[in-house]
Structures
1.
Amino acid sequence: MSEQPETPGAATHDPDRPAALLEFMTTGWAVREDPLPEPESAAPYRAARRAALAQHFPGERLVVPTGTYQTRANDTEYRFRPATEFAHLAGSHEPDAVLVLDPDGSAVLYQAPVMDRSTPAFFTDRVYGELWVGPRPSLEATSARLGLEARPLEELDKLSGPARVVRGYDPRVEALFETDEEADAELTTFLSELRLVKDEHEIAQLQQAVDATISGFEDVVRQLDRAQETSERWMEGVFGLRARVEGNDVGYGSICAAGAHACTLHWTDNDGPVRDGDLVLLDMGVEGYELYTADVTRTLPVSGTYTPCQREVYSLVLDAQEAALAACRPGADFLDPHRAAMKVLAEGLERLGVLPDAHAALAEDAQLYRRYTLHGVSHMLGLDVHDCAHARQEVYRKGTLQPGYVLTVEPGLYFQPDDETVPAELRGIGVRIEDDVVITEDGCRNLSAALPRDPDAIEQWMARLRSSHA
Ligand SMILES: [Mn+2]
């Protein structure tokens, strides 16, 4: 018995396969009739993006790989998630695919072959074989669905010469072409900036992701009792169920932080107790089927009622968020909502007895309030939770807001449990309120407005959900 897998894609523990079996397995199957799928509604929007890309780099070959499976352990992989740049331009969810824009501007999608019953690989290859992973779309089906010419992946190997490649996803593709690091970075930057303004299809996708997220928050509130009996993990699990049923997955690791865990910005262990009388900070987002993600935070009283102290901190963060939302309009600096929120928070911190002098704390060369506010108020949102990350500073962080931008508005206050600069009764309280807004012609529209923010409205909403569940 050989110690190595006998066929590519097979595992060490797979039994040997005699030739007679391979022959037998590939014969005797009924012919399948697979009607071609309808074109996706996103297809014309993606075609427009590809046209904009070709126009920006005329006469050049542009290569956008989607990447491949990432190993979780030994021969098990994480679920495949297409590269963001590729998803934006092509829309296929097939691993290993590569979008190429030829110098004449025409687009071709190169896709791995299907391993169907015409080849023994259909039952020997556990990563791509149809028997193991189910049927994968043919070139014809992919072409019909995406409105894009599709060719076998092996034909990509015939290409060579100069090209710009989106790096970081597929080293094999990067090695195929003559590339230049700086030129490739320009391509990635352009694609990040191309995603700054969302088209109507993308905004509808983001709204769907937000709506599913709101349902997920409702699920968690209905099951808060179970979380109290177990741990924060119950909330993560309940939200994850909604994300998998109404979307592709969660858009990022859910933060389910009870009590002082809320003061840890990226608390994703989610293994702590959920106690009556504590707050629970929930930062969660469903990633939809087309991979656009929501990013929403609410800070809820486990008991269903805020204590006076919790309510005071909560209301201050809410006031800061209202100030930030009012600053979200076209032409405003990207940082204006942040500045508006920080002013409100710093002045509130003085009232709470945390900062002796808000004005002094706000000074550019001091910024002492940041010990308690910790992070910026906004980031772009889209296919990536921190979208457009490769955009140039002058069009993003130091740029101005434009109609069609989608961003988060998420001020917070965090009083670490052992912070001696904070009055004792405030220590261990962390509050963040986060909504997703689209910049309109004259202001902004809150995509997550249907999820209560006002503390009274939250208490009523929680009471309604928990009584209907009982
Ligand atoms: Mn966020």
2.
Amino acid sequence: MATSIRPINKNDETFIDDVIRKEWGSEIIVVHGKTYKPKELPGLIAEENSKTVGLLTYKIERNECEIVTLNSLIKHKGIGTLLLDELKKTAERGRCNRVWVVTTNDNLNALRFYQKNDYKIKKIYPDAVEESRKIKPQIPLIGENGIPIKDEIELELNLTD
Ligand SMILES: CC(C)(COP(=O)(O)OP(=O)(O)OC[C@H]1O[C@@H](n2cnc3c(N)ncnc32)[C@H](O)[C@@H]1OP(=O)(O)O)[C@@H](O)C(=O)NCCC(=O)NCCS
């Protein structure tokens, strides 16, 4: 089944709200000392037969494009990669020097996914999640694979090479 990617529009508000609350525990994302409301950000939607199957939200600032959230609702079918590819084009059009993302130490799946898509680990912030948890207590103590969620890991795709 063909998957298509399009920018989000006003009609997607409920879908975005539902996905963010369900997948990220509340309507806000707290990361590297910043609080984001994904429903107020630009984003990309993946669709299959008019059914929404993926969401990426991002922020472009000072020639840098940050991935704020990325969720594939049907895993291992190429949806995440399609969203990432489309974001790269968007970032290039926006004259960005890089696309970057912060994930956490427990998220081995995301670390694998980004690195296999040419993203490189740039920085590690030990214990940074403690600060985020003060603003967003819904961030679990234990994450995927039973690993305590503690550190933030920044990855980037350099667009100047
Ligand atoms: C990380 C995430 C976005 C990846 O999305 P995804 O749609 O599963 O990604 P893809 O399908 O493009 O790629 C995943 C794997 O499926 C494989 N795949 C893609 N299409 C496939 C197909 N048709 N058949 C079999 N395998 C396939 C890819 O090759 C890749 O395998 P690899 O890890 O061995 O390289 C998804 O796991 C997710 O939503 N995670 C939860 C939220 C999260 O952590 N987000 C990232 C932090 S912001």
